[in-house]
Specification:
Elements lengths: L6 E6 L14 H16 L3 E6 L17 H25 L4 E5 L8 E2 L2 H9 L3 E5 L9 H11 L4 E6 L4 E2 L11 E2 L1 E2 L1 H7 L6 H9 L4 E5 L5 H6 L6 E3 L1
Parallel strand pairs: 1-2, 1-6, 2-5, 3-4, 3-5, 6-10, 9-11
Antiparallel strand pairs: 7-8, 10-11
Helix pairs in contact: 1-2, 4-6
Length: 236
């Protein structure tokens, strides 16, 4: 089946790698994501991934411990590299060719980010894992996802969460929360809905990159969305 979205930027949170654990990386979750991503690659999609580091360290939580914000943010970037290495290893165990690309130079474990080289990897069918955020403090991995999606000319950003879209209130706290199948960028801002941080969201809005928020824990959702199925919430 032809794909509606050919080049995809998948945004995963670091917390999603914890599974039922309180911290760290769950082998079950790594393998689950690897299988879902492999199916997407088999459907002939070009896939890039940005993964957070909150399962290991969050820069925003640094200051109460006495660590300055900038240092804490860099520590968080290194946490995304650890997650990226883990995901790369498991993907390759499943037979998926990958390239780990980092915004902070560490030649022994990852390639530096070079836009044209990254796009060429995608064209050759390799999965890109972007790590270390934007390489600068004060920017979240949401911002990194938006930036890289624009740079590689992605057709869409797929933001995997544990709920099945965007609601007018937290569905895990309010059983009467109403889900949106489609919502505009301006309405998300006016309603104060937390889809991505504002820097990331504005970047997508200004460059017309749609965002789909969906439940990553439902097997098969990635491929169905790439084929055009109306799953989750579309923001454009």
């Amino acid at each position: 089946m032809p794909l509606k979205y050919k080049r995809i930027l998948l945004k995963l949170s670091g917390e999603s790698l914890m599974g039922n654990q309180k911290f760290g990386i769950s082998a079950d979750m790594l393998n689950y994501y690897a299988v879902q991503i492999k199916e997407l690659v088999a459907a002939k999609a070009e896939v890039a991934i940005v993964i957070g580091g909150g399962n290991i360290y969050r820069g925003l939580s640094a200051e109460p411990s006495g660590i300055e914000r900038v240092t804490g943010d860099y520590m968080g970037m290194l946490a995304t590299c650890i997650n990226g290495m883990a995901l790369q290893s498991v993907l390759e165990t499943h037979g998926v060719y990958t390239r780990l690309i980092t915004a902070i130079e560490m030649r022994e474990i990852a390639e530096p980010y070079i836009r044209r080289r990254a796009i060429r990897h995608l064209e050759k069918g390799r999965v890109l894992i972007f790590s270390a955020g934007t390489g600068s403090p004060y920017f979240t991995t949401d911002s990194a996802a938006a930036l890289r999606a624009n740079e590689i000319n992605a057709d869409v950003i797929l933001k995997g969460t544990r709920v099945d879209g965007i609601y007018d209130s937290d569905p895990e706290k309010n059983v009467n929360a109403v889900k949106f199948d489609h919502i505009s960028f301006s309405n998300v801002i006016n309603m104060g809905l937390s889809v991505m941080d504002m820097t990331a969201f504005t970047l997508c809005q200004e460059n017309n990159v749609p965002i789909i928020v969906f439940n990553i824990n439902n097997p098969g959702n990635l491929v169905k969305i790439a084929e055009g199925a109306k799953i989750g919430t579309l923001v454009n």
